[in-house]
Each structure stands twice: as C-alpha cells, then as structure tokens.
Amino acid sequence: MPQILVDYSAELDFDRQGFAKELHPLIAEVIDTEVAACKTVFRPAVEYVLGDGASDEQMVLVEIKILAGRSTEQRAELTRRVLALLGAYVTVPLAYGVEVTELDRATYRFGHLAAR
C-alpha cells in the first residue's frame, strides 16, 4: 500500500530506479508490508526556491503515505532509514526532507483497472 512521492530538483542526477528498488524492501521491513505493495512516483521540480533564493543547493522531498496504525517509533525509524538511504544516492549539496504520513483506513481505497 505504501505510496512514495519523491519531488526532486530536475537537474539532480541520481539513480532513481536504484533508490526505489532499495527503498521498497526497506519500507516493507520497517512497517511489515509487502514489497509488491510499494509504489513510487518521481516528480522533477523544474522551478523551486530554497529560503531566500540565494542557495545553490538542490532539493529532494520524500513523502511516504502509509495506512494508519503504525507506531510513532516505526514511523520515526522509517524516516531515519530513508534519510540514510537518500544520503547513499545523493552526494551533492542538498536540502532534503522525509515525511511519513498516514492515510485513514476508513476513507482510503486503492485498486487496479483491468484493460478493456
């Protein structure tokens, strides 16, 4: 179920496929889900501003959406480990953030549409 959204500076060159392939089993381990349930979308940000605009840093923001019910400790551990993984893939000056958000089990739905 985890939905991972990665916003990143469009000019930032890093192995996104490799990052996702390591990220999915990491998430599955920490929150006890299946790797096959993980879905990652990479969204290049062509235009962004950091602080007062004087910084030449690039940016990566990772949001991991999971179903509600995991402990604060699990969510914090997930954040910590994702930050460490990101550091292994990006070696340039970087502004970054990782956020784990919970989806309400009563209102969230996900499915697949079959080809017609």
Strand content: 25-35%
Unreliable parts = none
Q: Name the CATH class.
A: Alpha Beta
Strand order of the largest sheet: 2-1-3-4
Q: How many beta strands in the DSSP annotation? A: 4
Q: Alpha-carbon distance between the termini?
A: 25 Å
Shape designation: globular
The helical percent reads 25-40%
In CATH, the homologous superfamily goes by the name Macrophage Migration Inhibitory Factor
CATH architecture annotation: 2-Layer Sandwich
Order of helices and strands: EHEEHE
Mean pLDDT: 95
Label the structural class.
alpha/beta
How many helical stretches?
2
- Look up the CATH topology: Macrophage Migration Inhibitory Factor
Domain module count: 1
User: Main β-sheet, in a few words?
Assistant: 4 strands, mixed
**Radius of gyration based on Cα positions:** 15 Å
Tag the structure with descriptive keywords:
116 residues, alpha/beta, Macrophage Migration Inhibitory Factor, 4-stranded mixed sheet, 2 helices
Summarize the structure.
29% of the residues lie in helices and 29% in strands. It contains two helices and four strands, in the order βαββαβ. Helix 1 packs antiparallel against helix 2.
What does this structure look like?
29% of the residues lie in helices and 29% in strands. The protein has helices at residues 16-31, 72-89; strands at 3-9, 39-45, 58-67, 94-103. A 4-stranded mixed beta sheet has the order 2-1-3-4, covered by helices on one side. Strand 3, helix 2 and strand 4 form a beta-alpha-beta unit. Helix 1 runs antiparallel to helix 2 (72-89).
